Amino acid sequence: MTELKINRTFRVCGAFAAAAFCTCALVSGAVRAFDVKSVEQSVVRLVRYSDNQQKAFGTGFVVSNGGYIATNRHVVGCNSKEKCHVKMFVQQGSTQDRVDLLSTELIALDLELDLALLRLNNTLLHPLPLAMEEPEKGARVHAFGFPVAGDTGIGGSGLSNPTLTEGIISRVETGRWDTSSGSTLRLVQHTANINRGNSGGPLLDDCGRVVGINTALPRPERLPDGTFLQPNGIYFASHAGSLADLLKRSNLSFEAQSSSCVPAAAPNSIVIWLVTVLSTAALAAATIAFVRRPQLITETYSQWMRRQPRPSGTCPPRKDQRGNDDPSPRWQIRGTDGNGQPVHFVIDEALLKESSNGLIVGSNEQVAEKVINDDTVSGQHARFTIVNGILHIEDLKSTNKVSIDGGRPIDPLVPKPLSAGAEIELGETRLKVLRI
């Protein structure tokens, strides 16, 4: 009942905010209509191949004449240009016999901004302009990309046809992709649905200008019953100004527009009112979620576990001596990767016991629930499981092996027990196991 009252309060407050917010005034700027066909021709599907030929997917868009493509750094999967040993391709479609891939060259990347620039030779694709003004709260936006889930049943030329979703701007704030360190940047929160595979795709205003680069969504919230809830309608992009900075540092020309966008066909006042009410409610729910470290747009262990069917007849949570729900034991895995970047994740023992496949750690977001961006970590490097109540780790035939407490590499496909305080080596990634 309390939750219902809170939700009603949010809706009432949202209605008053919408009434004040939607006092419409004409804004100076060019009056233009959103041209879907023109924009989508500049959006490309990206495919990453590592040394072991494992694939990962993302989205990019042409941003400068000469075939220069912008995307996320985590789509490329490298932390520095000099140590990057992956191959990036633009996929133009496929048939039963072949997949059409066009090779690209890595031009620049920025780890803290999570941005990268690629070059595709011999292309006439038109670059998209960047909007330098920050979008207004409530402004309509469009997201193009290639969500992996959208490939179901699709083949051939359909694989090069991007998905379009729409939403509004919820807010623009200063933040970091990694809340523990790194430079600050302007983050655009919006409601245009994005998923795994949308990383690096453009977020555009009604005039077809890039206002942001889609990058992340908030991490799932753990509920008292041990389940996880993924917030809906909350997605994050870096503002186009961050991309402009990287282009300038790379000495690349681009089209920057500072005028406001006035769409040719504005929605009627009733639609504006309804959309703004909904966005206000979403903003209230997002206040806590935003301060948590956002997840990159890859399927996480928590999301994967929530998709697994729960066994019938599940017992209710046990009570401790004080009458409280007894939370399941958890393990904290903390350390640094081969590039000195922090690695930190938590393993819930109860959820891990329910999984038939354990928690897979590796560098390929398509096959690993926990992704480590380290060239010395294989796509599927190791698996965590619970055996007789004890946390175990298993080497999944990785290239650079798994070692425990500085010993010799463990045998592949043989789970080894881990005690609290154990130190693990995955290639050049160093991790420590803590019980919490």
Automatic annotation (TrEMBL):
Keywords: Hydrolase, Membrane, Plasmid, Protease, Signal, Transmembrane, Transmembrane helix. Residues 317-328 have a biased composition (Basic and acidic residues). The chain crosses the membrane at residues 270-291. Residues 359-409 form the FHA domain. Residues 1-33 form the signal peptide. Residues 304-339 are annotated as: Disordered. One of its GO terms (molecular function) is serine-type endopeptidase activity. InterPro entries: Chloro_Bact_Ser_Proteases, FHA_dom, Peptidase_S1_PA, Peptidase_S1C, SMAD_FHA_dom_sf. One of its GO terms (biological process) is proteolysis. PANTHER family: PEPTIDASE S12, PROTEASE DO-LIKE 8, CHLOROPLASTIC. This is Serine protease.
